UniProtKB/TrEMBL annotation:
FAD-binding PCMH-type domain segment(s): 39-220
Organism, as annotated: Comamonas antarctica
Swiss-Prot/TrEMBL keywords: FAD, Flavoprotein, Plasmid
UniProt signal peptide: none
Keyword Nucleotide-binding listed: no
Protein name per UniProt: FAD-binding oxidoreductase
Length: 471
């Protein structure tokens, strides 16, 4: 406790009670490392406020004592944005006890909940009133909506419904000095000044603590049509995407891409999956339509894919004819993270590009990486429908830490320079955190970075909010 203000523990205990503090080393351990075990730190105190008032009291105390705060939800992030440093001087503020769904309004198509509610619980609450909350991630059973909003999470339904930013109408936020912004407005139109909501969404806990949100619900789809296709290259899949958008409109909810090496890795490492197509294809796509009216949906997808086959956009197609087949196809796509962890050490790139630039980028990046390290294993997959690639390089499991660090720096510069040339983003949906913090300064313009710093200084003058992350 020597690194902390002498009265801090006493004041925090008065604010949240014994139930709101975690002080035992073994009990604190899960809060001090990310789920990938890539980032590890130490916190002398983990604080778990039970409501917004307690959260405000905690932030007021930390502001007064200049104590740095790391806000943490489900701790499922991919960029080290919710892990304390090694100093022991940072307090972890966990939102786990902020876990109430406050209201559901099916007529207004909104749901108001606290930041610590699990994403899967929000989806279930929407379904209970015959509505649909479309944000969907592999970690939805353990990630929280506060973390989803803080990182502007994406997932598999962005193509139709947008990122987390598009799914939130209002926020409640505790500011660094303990004041509360009550912005829980369930409105589609509100032209009364600056959009403060969008300052906090995607800010990764550097500007305040999101404690609650009004979320946008949609009509619940009652029918789905799913297919797996094989294609010769990315350009062919981009053509197919354009055709499906024209033919199917907003019914197109997912267009997931896997390169042949990515599919091979999954088949090698994940049990109870098999190749959907008999032939060899350089790229694959998992496509899904959804609608509130089921009649004709499968026929619509079949007609569009038949035309794509005739025009050579794709080489082969497998249409799902049952719920079990659909689940089997999605199990393949969802197995990629597990496959990479089992097979080696991945240098990961979560990038976004204009869809029209994807084919040229992949060709250039593949060539540049092979020139830098012949035979390198590129695992390229992602949400092709919204231009988000997880363009990773897989190294052997026994790669020494120093070699991994050197390879990461070398590969990052190759990939991210090409992304910048294509007017893309080096962080599409995972956030910046610690992983991309230094690179962000390299790729942001001086004006843009200065504006971000001015916002940070205005809201957090004591610089206590998630230091060492994002900026």
């Amino acid at each position: 406790m020597s690194n902390l203000h002498p009265q801090l523990l006493q004041r925090l205990h008065a604010a949240v009670g014994a139930a709101g503090l975690v002080l035992d080393d073994a009990a604190k351990a899960p809060y001090e490392s990310d789920w990938l075990r890539k980032w590890n730190g130490r916190s002398s105190i983990v604080v778990r406020p039970a409501d917004t008032a307690q959260t405000a009291a905690v932030m007021g105390i930390c502001h007064d004592t200049h104590t740095p705060v790391v806000t943490q939800g489900g701790n499922t992030g991919m960029s080290g944005g919710a892990t304390p440093d090694a100093s022991g001087a940072q307090v972890v503020l966990s939102t786990q006890r902020l876990n109430r769904i406050r209201s559901v309004d099916p007529l207004n198509n909104t749901l108001t909940c606290e930041a610590g509610v699990l994403l899967a619980h929000i989806q279930a609450a929407a379904q209970e009133v015959d509505r649909f909350f479309p944000l969907s991630l592999g970690s939805e059973g353990s990630c929280t909506i506060g973390g989803n909003l803080a990182t502007n999470a994406g997932g598999i339904a962005v193509l139709r419904y947008g990122n987390a930013r598009e799914l939130a109408l209002g926020l409640e936020v505790v500011l660094p000095d303990g004041r509360v912004w009550h912005g829980l407005r369930a409105l589609r139109k509100d032209n009364t000044g600056y959009d403060l909501r969008d300052l906090f969404i995607g800010s990764e806990g550097t500007l305040g603590v999101i404690t609650a949100a009004v979320l946008k619900l949609s009509p619940r789809p009652v029918a789905r049509a799913t297919a797996w296709v094989g294609a010769r290259d990315i350009a062919a899949l981009v053509q197919l995407l354009a055709r499906l958008r024209a033919d199917c409109g907003e019914r197109l909810v997912a267009f997931e891409m896997l390169s042949a090496p990515s599919l091979a890795l999954i088949l090698e490492q994940v049990s109870e999956v098999r190749a959907p197509l008999a032939g060899e294809h350089a790229f694959h796509a998992l496509i899904e339509l959804a609608d509130t009216q089921g009649e004709g949906l499968a026929a619509l997808l079949e007609r569009s894919l038949e035309a794509a086959l005739e025009n050579a956009c794709v080489q082969d197609v497998a249409l799902s004819v049952s719920g079990a087949q659909t689940q089997a196809l999605w199990k393949i796509r969802e197995g990629i993270s597990q496959a990479q962890m089992r097979a080696g050490k991945a240098v990961k790139h979560d990038i976004a590009l204009p869809i029209s630039a994807l084919a040229a980028f992949v060709q250039q990046a593949d060539a540049a990486l092979q020139a830098a390290q012949p035979g390198v294993r590129i695992i390229n997959f992602g949400h092709l429908g919204d231009g988000n690639l997880h363009y990773n390089v897989l190294l052997p499991r026994d790669t020494p830490p120093e070699a991994l660090a050197a390879a990461t720096a070398r590969f990052n510069r190759i990939v991210h320079d090409l992304v910048a040339e294509a007017q893309g983003s080096i962080s599409a949906e995972h956030g910046v955190g610690q992983l991309r913090r230094d690179e962000l300064r390299h790729y942001k313009s001086e004006v843009e970075f200065d504006l971000m710093m001015r916002v940070k200084q205005s809201l957090d003058p004591n610089q206590i909010m998630n230091p060492g992350k994002l900026i």
